[in-house]
Amino acid sequence: MKTGIFLLNLGSPDEPTTPAVRRYLRQFLSDARVIDIPALPRQLLLNLFILPFRSPKSAHAYKKVWTTEGSPLVSYTKKLAEKVQIHLNQIQPDEYKVIFGMRYGNPSIQKVLNEFYSEGIRKVILVPLYPQYAAASTGSSIAEVYRVAGTFWDPFELSVAPAFYNQPFYLESFARRGESVLSKQKADHILFSFHGVPERQLTKSEGCKPGFCEFTTTCCSTISDLNANCYRAQCFDSARNIAKLLNLKPETWSVSFQSRLGRTKWIEPYTDVVLTELAGNGIKNLVVFSPSFVADCLETLEEIGIRAVEDFKKAGGESLTLVPSLNEGEDWARGLAEWIQTLN
């Protein structure tokens, strides 16, 4: 009997319009693991402040990166699933069925599980496409897949792939893309910009042991039993390993966190602040990796590739070059397929 491989990414609106973005943001930001405050304040915040103002603004941003194939995130994930299927067929013919889906938006988790179920596939490996574990992404995705899977009469045999932030196939794939950029582009500094999360979400999670997390570079300088499941520590570990593969000197690279929302304290340093500081310190040519995203999306193409470029130049920089994400790259798809095969 075939094993189902569920490649799950975060999601995207169906089209770059205000109504579509509003629907997507409503589903996304109603998640109690994303905005982790009580339900009533969350809904008031969402309906009175976030949706009325953020929906048209985000729709405008999505229009800048939308392609003839639609959402970059969805189209890249679709192509990745097709390539992973090909590679798995080469490893073990007819043993796997690969389907991709999104935590928010389409293709939905329900649709993917329905397809597995209709084909008689009961053994499913969930592969969250988030390299570093965070409750707001991986945790939410796992919880929702379990919830939907529990609605079927005959339950699935469901297993979950672990975070792959330190896996060679992921690190080497990003390093290769960095090598390609750095061989053509002068770089005075390299910045690894990861998606941010509120500090309180890390302290609520078991990833940070009580009394250990100080939200400093020092407490994330190594991975140990005390912080092995900490999102911030995993981000720093990914950056260190990619930097090592690229033979970067310690003083030539740094880590920051992007995409913060609202007034609450998020993990630091903030990417927008770091960009201004780097330009002020004489850095003219900057290369940026976004290793928390395995597919280019709004946060890479628009937030870094457009807005960060403009902000860096306004602050005195000359060039900011975004390293492309892994997308549907052959090396990444092959490595992912080989890793998945070891999980079965």
Strand order within the widest sheet? 2-1-3-4
SSE ordering? EHHHEHEHEHEHHEHEHEH
Approximate helicity band: 40-55%
Class by SSE composition: alpha/beta
Question: Can you tell me the residue ranges where pLDDT is under 50 for at least 5 consecutive residues?
Answer: none
User: What's the mean pLDDT score?
Assistant: 95
* Shape field: globular
Instruction: Please give the alpha-carbon distance between the first and last residues.
Output: 13 Å
Supply the CATH class of the domain at 168-322. Answer: Alpha Beta
Q: Strand share of the residues?
A: 15-25%
CATH topology of the domain at 168-322: Rossmann fold
CATH architecture of the domain at 168-322, please? 3-Layer(aba) Sandwich
* Main sheet makeup: 4 strands, parallel
Number of contiguous helices = 11
| Alpha-carbon Rg, integer | 20 Å
Strand segment count: 8
Give an overview in words.
This protein is of the alpha/beta class. The protein has a domain of 155 residues: Rossmann fold. Helices cover 47% and strands 15% of the residues. Strands 2-1-3-4 form a four-stranded parallel sheet, with helices on both faces. Strand 7, helix 10 and strand 8 form a beta-alpha-beta unit. Helix 9 packs parallel to helix 10. The longest helix has 27 residues. It is globular, with a radius of gyration of 20 Å. The chain starts with a strand and ends with a helix.
